[in-house]
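DnaJ-domain-containing protein
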Amino acid sequence: WPDNKNPSPYEILQTTPSEFSSRKLKITYYKLARLYHPDSNSHGHICSSNGALLSDKTKAERFKMVVSAYDILRDPKKKVIFDRFGIGWTGVDVTSGYSSAQPSQASHAVYRNHQSDEAFWNAGTWEDYQEHKRRSDSGAFKEQCDNTRWTYLSYVVGGMCVAAFIQIMAILDRTEAHYRYPTGSTVKSLYDLDLVLLNYGWGFAKMDRISRFLAHRDSS
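Tokens:
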């Protein structure tokens, strides 16, 4: 990092007007953005040239300056205006204590997700980064809502399946009880059938059947 308090975009991105290269600019930007980005340095330690550890506020300010410097030098129109008139670059004194951005407390998992996110690393301005972060947060919230909805639906379906199983078992129990324990009318029917099969106690010989017929005829 440059030693002076208010480095120029060229100094921050480690190049000069005479040695300027878009390819080198992009490589340097990626390297510095990864180094100072709030989501990538929350678990790391970065030392200054004198060996002192950088605070999260300083790292956040440096990241903002890297983004602002890249925004100027990557745009040919802004670069020409800056080269000729020095317009477009305000700079930030990272030792003054001023900070317009709070360092992120995002986890290392978030950083790993950002590593493969082209839009994240191609954010050319601080506003681009904030817009990308807003969209990412919105997408994460939507995904969380979807997961919650599916979890709730799985509980509902599971509960319905359990209730249906209990109902089926109750119906089977009642059906089994119906056939296992005959009602009064069923018992009487079985008794009458037994009497018929036994010929009402008259026997099964020819004369027994005739006698039973005559007895029933006279009684009626």
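The first helix runs from residue 9 to 12.
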